[in-house]
Design goal:
- The complex is a heterodimer of chains A (about 190) and B (about 775).
- In chain A, a hairpin with a 6-residue loop joins β12 and β13.
- Chain A has a 5-stranded mixed β-sheet, with no helix packed on it. In chain A, strands 1, 2, 15 and 18 form a 4-stranded mixed β-sheet that branches.
- Chain A is mainly β and about 190 residues long.
- Chain A has 1 helix and 18 strands.
- Chain B is an alpha+beta fold.
- Chain B is built from 24 helices and 27 strands.
- In chain B, a hairpin with a 2-residue loop joins β3 and β4.
- Classes of the chains: A mainly beta (about 190), B alpha+beta (about 775).
- At the A-B interface, β12 of A face α2 of B.
């Protein structure tokens, strides 16, 4: 679905193509899945988020397990199960709770502060998810091989960071400057 | 005593084997018990350690669970997330009371104590039990032993999830003696906890506990002596949340652990003792049951030894001993039968089946003993078959044996049952009978003699047999059996000598026998002591009434007994082997005398008697020749007289010697002719020149004694026909002298002419005869019996 829309996007705006950062996140040897790689422009304002995001609860699990959003994104929490959930977060980036509900709560939750928000369900202890709130529209989750590409970057200087679940200590961010439509290779090694 | 020792041996064997077995059992039980004890104590300790671990783990689990319940509480999580320390502290204190913990702490994710229940003394400081925290970070939760405030604590720590950990909740629970008592009850062990920082707590009794801190062993498993008790000890280090050493000591009182084994060993020992007693009783009963019949057997053997072959052994058993008793009884009977047989053989003559000398003597003694009480006389007859040797030689030994059997049979038939007939050996029989009087004894003797009246018919041979019987009576002739037998024997020889069928013992005869014995000893010395001397009796030529020969007769001038005739000592000389000595002396003296006669003009030959034994001396002819030539006497001057029976003894050998003598020119004469049994054919072969008719035929020769007359006449004729000179001995009367003259006898010898005279007297007699040429021959005769 996302792939299809991306293709459509590429086809629709070929003139806007910019630089690409190809990132790889490794945990020792193997690539890390569902790590979030994001590039924060230095010294330049970023455009506000254009899209809302969704964190579904299905089969007593959060989907997706990791969700990256730009600061200021409203996230909806539709409950697709036939049992009630009580979604909460005690994370400093966003402390909230959606007391017992079924179906879609009437209002989305606005994530207006960058940080990691750990989600839980007060009914089901095993349910856990992360929402990564970043101050940039340039972010991507790594595939199973630990690779992710940040595309269409406007020329300029970026700070490239990474986050992964159960990561211990953040690796040093990479500083990348792009000028045109070049491809820049960045790699991270994380400890878990 | 063998019986006793057998019983004792059996007893000792059984008891010994059993005791050995029981000792072995006891030892092996003891050793197995020791091993089992060691193993079971060891197992108990290890099980105890496992149980302890399990209890601690369970307790930790329970404690963790209580903490987990708290941290899942949304409000608590919310409170923790809020960071409101005073509120959090109060919540922790609340929880501490609820779960009965010693202390509760909240630790943030950075490892700092955020709140506590000990009045915030630790708040804001790093959590002191880093190892515990590290383990919790790895596993989500952890528990460990930790010394806290100088007391042993079990700490548990769990995460506060939201749902990722946002903090750590930690609670400590004191390990106290109540807990150890619980463990002790569950494991039946004594449990102590020792920690380097918190010291000792223990379930041990006070005095033993006091010794423990100094005795904490380095080894995991060991035996400790605490107070008066020994403890198997297992040191079980506990997992600690810091670097302190915390050890649990699990201990078993060995004396108590040993108790059941000691009880078992005592029981077995008691059982063994009872079994041993039972075995002793059984062994005694068994050994008695074996030894009693053995004793009976031994007694039976003793009876057999004493000669009791009648009383059997009574053993009322069907086993091997019973069989032994049966075999023993059979053996007893067999020995009895054999002994009877042996006794019979020892006391009876094998040929005739009659009692032998031993039994006879025995019965004789018994009868004498009996008659000493009853006063009755006991008689015995000694009997000897005449000429038995000749019968044996002529008709064969088998015939002789049959004859003896028949004689025995006839004797037995003749006598009463109470009398005893015995064969003493050879042709000698003996009879024992009771004889009230001497006359009665004579009757018995003549009755015994009658068995020889009828001829003995054996096979196709009929033979007349005679015997000589000597009779002796107890009390009259002897006082004991031996003497009685000896005197009957003497009487028998008298009968034989006198040619009568029987003779009574004559008192004094036995003294004669004793004298004979002494003479035997003295005879040897008689020659050297010069006690012998020669007497001479002339043989007168009947036709010319002239002495032509003189028979030399030896006399023994015994220092005590005086002059002894040859028939008193010549048989002795023959028996003692001295006859040759005497013969040689006689021949030497006779030849010397004869030579003297010839020298003084007496025309006489000298005659010497040879013993039968002399005919076995092959040196004799040479000796005689030597003497003759030495004396210068022609051999024809010497006449050697040999009795008929002497020549009969060993014909071939005697003939050889006689022929040798004859060849040397010596004159040979047969003496005592008519008393032996020589056949004419035999006589014909003898190289003799003269024949001397035995004096028994001549002494009583009268015109009316027809038998003697016939014998003398026919002997003279026989002699003459064979070309022999015939000489009559025992001429004692004018009448017999005349008869001999009429019958043509060549020479006469006897008292009618002259008795034997000493050499000097004989010479005087010759001189007188020479002076009275025509005088009757009996002139100088004395009416004496000739020898």
């Amino acid at each position: 679905m996302r792939l299809v829309s991306s293709i459509l996007f590429l086809l629709a705006t070929p003139a806007l193509l910019g630089a690409t950062i190809d990132a790889v996140v490794r945990d020792g040897r193997s690539g890390v899945h569902d790590a979030v790689v994001y590039a924060v422009p230095e010294g330049r304002p970023v455009p506000p988020p254009r899209r809302a995001a969704v964190m579904e609860q299905k089969n007593r699990a959060f989907i997706p397990h990791v969700l990256a959003v730009q600061t200021g994104t409203a996230v909806r929490f539709p409950n697709l199960d036939d049992v009630q959930h009580h979604v909460y977060s005690f994370s400093p980036a966003k402390t909230f709770q959606l007391p017992l509900y079924k179906g879609s709560p009437p209002n989305p939750v606005l994530f207006d502060k960058a940080g990691v928000v750990t989600l839980g369900c007060n009914i089901h202890d095993q349910m856990s998810a992360f929402i990564i709130v970043v101050d940039t529209p340039y972010f991507e989750k790594t595939a199973a091989n630990g690779r992710a590409s940040l595309r269409d970057l406007e020329p300029g200087r970026y700070t490239v960071r990474v986050w992964a679940p159960e990561m211990r200590g953040e690796p040093a961010p990479a500083s990348v400057t792009v000028t045109g439509d070049e491809r820049v290779e960045v790699s991270f090694n994380i400890r878990r | 005593m063998p019986v006793r020792s057998f019983q004792a041996r059996l007893l000792w064997l059984i008891v010994g084997v059993l005791a050995l077995l029981e000792a072995g059992t006891l030892i092996s039980v003891h050793l197995a018990g020791q091993r089992t004890l060691q193993k079971s104590v060891r197992d108990e300790l290890h099980v105890g350690a496992n149980v302890l671990d399990r209890i601690l783990t369970q307790r930790a689990g329970q404690l963790s669970e209580s903490l987990r319940i708290l941290v899942r509480d949304f409000a608590f999580r919310e409170l923790v997330a809020s960071g409101d320390v005073p509120t959090i502290s109060s919540a922790l204190e609340n929880q501490r009371k609820r779960v009965n913990a010693g202390a509760v702490l909240l630790v943030d994710l950075d490892g700092n104590v955020k709140a506590d229940t000990i009045e915030g003394r630790m708040a804001g400081r790093p959590f002191p039990f880093a190892a515990l925290l590290a383990e919790a970070q790895k596993n989500g939760e952890a528990h460990a032993m930790i010394s806290f405030a100088n007391k042993p604590y079990q700490f548990v720590i769990v995460a506060v999830p939201a749902p990722q950990p946002i903090a750590w909740l930690c609670a400590g629970f004191e390990i106290d003696e109540a807990f150890l008592a619980d463990v002790s009850r569950l494991t039946t062990l004594d449990v102590s906890l020792w920690s380097s920082t918190a010291g000792l707590i223990s379930t041990l009794p006070a005095d033993e506990r006091a010794d423990l801190p100094a005795a904490i062993p380095q080894k995991q498993e060991t035996t400790l002596r605490l107070g008066n008790a020994e403890y198997a000890t297992l040191v079980h280090p506990l997992h600690t949340g810091d670097n302190a050493r915390v050890e649990m000591l699990l201990q078993r009182n060995l004396a108590k652990a040993r108790e059941p084994f000691v009880r078992l060993e005592l029981t077995i020992f008691a059982l063994s003792f009872v079994m041993l007693l039972a075995a002793v009783v059984a062994a005694v009963i068994f050994s008695r049951s074996v030894s009693r019949p053995l004793r009976v057997l031994a007694e039976g053997a003793g009876r057999v030894e004493r000669g009791d072959y009648v009383s059997p052994i009574v053993v009322d058993q069907k086993d091997e001993i019973g069989q032994l008793a049966t075999a023993f009884n059979q053996m007893q009977a067999a020995i009895g039968a054999r002994e009877e047989q042996i006794i019979h053989q020892a006391t009876h003559d094998a040929l005739t089946g009659l009692p032998n000398r031993t039994l006879f003597l025995d019965r004789l003694s018994q009868s004498i003993e009996a008659s000493k009480r009853s006063g009755e006389s006991v008689g015995m007859i000694m009997m000897d078959v005449d000429r038995f040797k000749e019968i044996n030689d002529t008709l064969g030994h088998h015939f002789g044996d049959q004859l003896l059997i028949e004689i025995g049979r006839r004797l037995t038939l003749t006598l009463r049952q109470s009398d005893t007939v015995a064969r003493l050996g050879g042709d000698e029989f003996a009879v024992k009978f009771t004889a009230p009087t001497a006359r009665h004894a004579t009757e018995v003797a003549s009755r015994v003699g009658t068995i020889f009246d009828a001829p003995f018919i054996l096979g196709d041979v009929s033979i007349d047999v005679n015997a000589s019987l000597g009779i002796a009576l107890y009390q009259m002739h002897a006082d004991d059996a031996d003497t009685l037998m000896k005197r009957a024997d003497i009487a028998m020889y008298d009968a034989k000598k006198n040619h009568t069928r029987f003779a009574f013992y004559e008192p004094g005869r036995d003294e004669h026998s004793l004298r004979r014995l002494a003479l035997m000893m003295e005879l040897r010395q008689a020659v050297t002591r010069n006690e012998l001397e020669l007497h001479f009796q002339p043989k007168v030529e009947v036709s010319r009434d002239r002495a032509v020969h003189a028979e030399a007769l030896v006399r023994w001038k015994h220092p005590r007994h005086g002059l002894m005739r040859p028939d008193e000592f010549i048989p002795l000389a023959e028996q003692t082997g001295n006859i040759s000595l005497i013969t040689k002396w006689v021949v030497r003296r006779a030849v010397a005398e004869c030579a003297e006669w010839n020298r003084v003009g007496l025309d006489l030959s000298v005659a010497v008697n040879l013993s039968a034994l002399d005919l076995f001396d092959t040196e004799l002819p040479t000796f005689i020749s030597g003497l003759l030539s030495e004396a210068g006497l022609p051999p024809s001057r010497l006449v050697l007289e040999i009795t008929e029976s002497a020549v009969m003894k060993d014909t071939a050998y005697a003939l050889k010697v006689l022929r040798d003598l004859k060849r040397r020119g010596v004159v040979l004469a047969i003496d005592d002719f008519g008393t032996g049994y020589s056949s004419l054919a035999h006589l014909k072969r003898l190289p003799v020149d003269e024949l001397k008719i035995d004096k028994s035929f001549v002494q009583n020769l009268t015109e009316t004694a027809t038998d003697d007359l016939v014998i003398v006449r026919s002997t003279i004729e026989l002699g003459h026909n064979m070309g022999l000179v015939v000489i009559a001995e025992g001429v004692e009367s004018q009448e017999s002298w005349q008869i001999l003259k009429r019958l043509g006898c060549d020479m006469g010898q006897g008292y009618f002419m002259s008795p034997p005279l000493p050499a000097a007297e004989f010479r005087k007699w010759c001189e007188r005869r020479a002076a009275l040429p025509e005088q009757a021959p009996g002139l100088a005769a004395h009416p004496q019996r000739s020898e």
